[in-house]
């Protein structure tokens, strides 16, 4: 039985990935290691928590001794590393937390893996972001050859961790693979991020904050398509390689928010145009990257992955999920969320 450590499995992508692996690979033993920060939530995993091949471990990847002990005790064969501080705006408010978890935490995991993996079939899969490549102008896309040019404390911390993962491959022969993915959306997305934040605010008839003029462009991928890409790369990816993940789905923020308003008007039985009145242009994010766009040809051509979800129907599915999961939404938007919201948007 493959013993796989998934870090950050209680977060947005991690919980969707665990659900995907549990249903597809009942023979794998999955260990979800998560600190349960504000972004980690065991409610995301209710439907899998009693499966015999799923185990939850609460812990912090920055705690070196704890991580060493854990690897000695469980002797994981594979690691899929997602645990991270993931929100750009928070990285601007508090960079150190991002350096600790995203860089130091990654190094702790790499060291522990290196010490127990002397021989046999192993893989350290590092889940990363397209933000490491920086910001595009109107033309071109990020390929695996694009030079790194991170601009925010978040993307700089992820870029550092990518470099360190590659250094362990070259220096210690640690079997690694890295993927850099575009913006995800879908169920269990924490409502500090644009799409779920807008859904929540539109639902409550509150202002929808759009940074600057809303002209920044993001390339959106349904989270289950990301989980399927990780599955393919985990099983078929070449050791030492990097794969970009994206679905050729670029949207200007303002166009995306207008589409979301339209969907919400229909779902909530509002007069068409009602939700659009909530759009509020606010002070721009410092160092706001203009455009991200992924060229996923390597993943498509070499490993045969293709996204399955169209954007309009994926967005509708996402809206339905948030409207049907009011209790979840109320839980995650109380307490710490309100304090953060006040600091970020109260000005
Ligand atoms: P998330 O913020 O929803 O979840 C992060 C998880 O990591 C949470 O469960 C949190 O509790 C856990 N965590 C944080 N610090 C920890 C620590 N010190 N020790 C143990 N656990 C800790 O993030 P996400 O959106 O699911 O992103 C997951 C990964 O995918 C991240 O590495 C992120 O950089 C990457 N990524 C995200 C996107 C996206 O659009 N969300 C796109 C590309 C790549
Ligand atoms: O590209 C992948 C990255 O996508 C991941 O690595 C990050 O973890 C993830 O958070 C996401 O980063 P972004 O900064 O692109 O996502 P966010 O949802 O925060 O913002 C999307 C766009 O919307 C961006 O241009 C900023 C803008 N925005 C965001 C918020 C929260 C607004 O206009 N208003 C807002 O209130």
Characterise the protein shown here.
The structure is a single chain. This protein is of the alpha/beta class and 347 residues long. The protein has a single domain (3-186, 218-249, 288-314), classed as NAD(P)-binding Rossmann-like Domain (Rossmann fold), CATH 3.40.50. The protein contains 12 helices and 12 strands. The protein has helices at 12-24, 64-74, 88-93, 95-116, 153-172, 194-203, 223-236, 253-268, 297-303, 311-324, 326-332, 336-345; strands spanning 3-7, 29-34, 54-58, 78-81, 123-129, 176-181, 183-185, 208-211, 217-222, 242-245, 250-252, 279-282. A 7-stranded parallel sheet has the order 3-2-1-4-5-6-10, with helices on both faces. Strand 1, helix 1 and strand 2 (29-34) form a beta-alpha-beta unit. Helix 4 (95-116) runs parallel beside helix 5 (153-172) and helix 8 packs across helix 10. The longest helix has 22 residues, at 95-116. The protein is globular. The N and C termini lie far apart (53 Å). The model has no long low-confidence stretch (mean pLDDT 97). Bound molecules: nicotinamide-adenine-dinucleotide (NAD) and 2'deoxy-thymidine-5'-diphospho-alpha-D-glucose (DAU). 2'deoxy-thymidine-5'-diphospho-alpha-D-glucose (DAU) is lined by residues 86-88, 129-131, 182-183, 193-194, 197, 209-211, 216, 218, 253, 285, 292. Nicotinamide-adenine-dinucleotide binds next to helix 1, helix 4, strand 5 and strand 7.
């Amino acid at each position: 039985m493959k013993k796989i450590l998934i870090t950050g499995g209680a977060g947005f992508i991690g919980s969707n990935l665990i659900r995907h692996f549990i249903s597809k690979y009942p023979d794998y033993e999955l260990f979800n290691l998560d600190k349960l920060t504000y972004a980690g939530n065991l409610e995301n995993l209710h439907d899998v928590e009693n499966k015999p091949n799923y185990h939850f471990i609460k812990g912090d990847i920055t705690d070196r001794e704890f991580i060493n002990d854990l690897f000695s005790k469980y002797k994981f064969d594979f690691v899929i590393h997602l645990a991270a501080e993931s929100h750009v705006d928070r990285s601007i408010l508090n960079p150190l937390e991002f350096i600790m978890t995203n860089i130091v935490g990654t190094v702790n995991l790499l060291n522990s893996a290196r010490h127990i993996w002397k021989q046999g079939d192993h893989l350290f899969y590092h889940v990363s972001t397209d933000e490491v490549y920086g910001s595009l102008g109107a033309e071109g896309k990020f390929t695996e050859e694009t030079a790194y040019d991170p601009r925010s404390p978040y993307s700089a911390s992820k870029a550092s961790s990518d470099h360190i993962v590659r250094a362990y491959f070259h220096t210690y022969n640690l079997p690694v693979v890295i993927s850099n993915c575009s913006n995800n959306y879908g169920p269990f997305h924490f409502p500090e991020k644009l799409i779920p934040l807008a859904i929540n605010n539109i639902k409550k008839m509150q202002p929808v904050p759009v940074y600057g003029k809303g002209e920044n462009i993001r390339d959106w991928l349904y989270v289950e398509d990301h989980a399927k890409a990780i599955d393919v790369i985990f099983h078929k990816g070449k050791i030492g390689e990097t794969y970009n993940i994206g679905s050729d789905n670029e949207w200007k923020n303002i166009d995306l928010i207008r589409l979301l308003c339209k969907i919400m008007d229909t779902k909530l039985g509002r007069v068409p145009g009602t939700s659009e009145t909530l759009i509020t242009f606010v002070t721009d994010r410092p160092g706001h990257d203009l455009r991200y766009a992924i060229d996923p040809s390597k993943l498509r051509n070499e490993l045969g992955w293709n996204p399955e979800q169209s954007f309009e129907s994926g967005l509708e599915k996402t809206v339905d999920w948030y409207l049907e999961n009011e209790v979840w939404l109320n839980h995650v938007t109380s307490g710490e969320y309100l304090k953060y919201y006040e600091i970020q948007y109260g000005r």
